[in-house]
Amino acid sequence: MNLQKFLLGLLVLLGLGTALAAPSVDVPNELRLTHDLVSQSLREYAQGKSQQAFRTARSAYLDHFEYAEPPLRVLNPDLILEMEYRFADLRNGMKAGQPTGELQKIAGDIDGSLRKAESIVSGTGVLGPTLAATGGFTILFREGLEAALLIAAIFAYLDTSRNTQLRRAVWYGGAAALLATALTWALATYVLSIAPVSRELISAVTSAIAVVILFSLSFWLLQQSDRRRSVEFMRARVSQAVQSGSLLALGAVTFTTIYREGFETVLFYQALSVASGPVSVYMYLGVALAILALAVTFLLLFRFGRRLPTAKLFPVLVSVTALFAVAFVGNGVRAFQEAGWLNVTNLYGRLPTIDPNVAALTGLHPTVETLGAQGLMLLIYVLGFVYARVRAGAGRQNAAGKLERS
């Protein structure tokens, strides 16, 4: 037994010695070049250039990934073996003339493994996990806080009634909405995993929808009048349900109010989970912290009846929401590029390289198209916020003028 341990240790030392004696390799750069060539091979295959696509895919493995293998093999041999099979599946699929969608799924798995490999070599650092945790926390806390305030508004309306069954119907409706949200998450995850389209296209469409909703939410949160109208509309629906005497109708109002927030949460987390990749565990840490924060919020609202400083809190949440919308724009454009729907003007080598996890979570990919889309989105946000401020100031001046005249 001791002899076996000695021989095993000797082999490990020899393996490490060989790796140390090998020429220095820029592993992150080789992995990025591998990613670019895999994406290029898919575009060539989609254009009918199957032979050229096969040669490009082979070059991605032989001319770049193989150079990154020695240090990675020491750190995670299982990942290397897995990737060898995936590269072989990609080349064999091109030889066999498989549909482009099938090859895009294989390429998506390769891309995920490349990101994991780069994280193994470079380390996750601090910024990537921090961004993932921040996103996980902000999304759930923002949506949960909005739901809590709406439920509080419903209970405030019901305070005029001593009918305990009405309050029970609200809680049942809220619980049903939470259950429906969990089922929606499970269903969405399953459907997306078996969808007959590429992972890149799914990511692109999900990011695009998330951006539209986040963009509208950002400015809606800033407009106090719009939020008041939303609460008044919800109270009117509650009033109709109470007057009809139907507990089911009241529960349905609560269900739709909460489930709308839950559906948005599922959509945002689908986009964020793709971006988080190897640091997704930190996203779930943010989710756990958000659940804890929401528990405290619910306790303060419904147990002690305390008011929360939402006027100061919402601008912070709006700012973080806007930043994630800009990130999703970059990721969405990048996904459309990898799916072959948009051109790619690479800026590799011209811009400083950043950690792949940070790039995925911020959407800062080194292409003209992704950075241009993010710049445009950021400009729209700046102009929109300035417009909202000017409009709010004008509204306050008009209100002050009316008070003076009265």
From TrEMBL:
It is found in: Membrane. It is a multi-pass membrane protein. It comes from the Bacteria. Residues 1-21 form the signal peptide. The keyword Cytoplasm does not apply. Its main location: membrane. GO terms for molecular function: ferrous iron transmembrane transporter activity. The chain crosses the membrane at residues 139-158, 170-195, 201-222, 242-259, 279-301, 313-333, 371-388. InterPro entries: FTR1/Fip1/EfeU. GO terms for cellular component: high-affinity iron permease complex. The keyword Iron-sulfur does not apply. Keywords: Membrane, Signal, Transmembrane, Transmembrane helix. Belongs to the oxidase-dependent Fe transporter (OFeT) (TC 9.A.10.1) family. This is Iron permease FTR1. It comes from Deinococcus ruber.
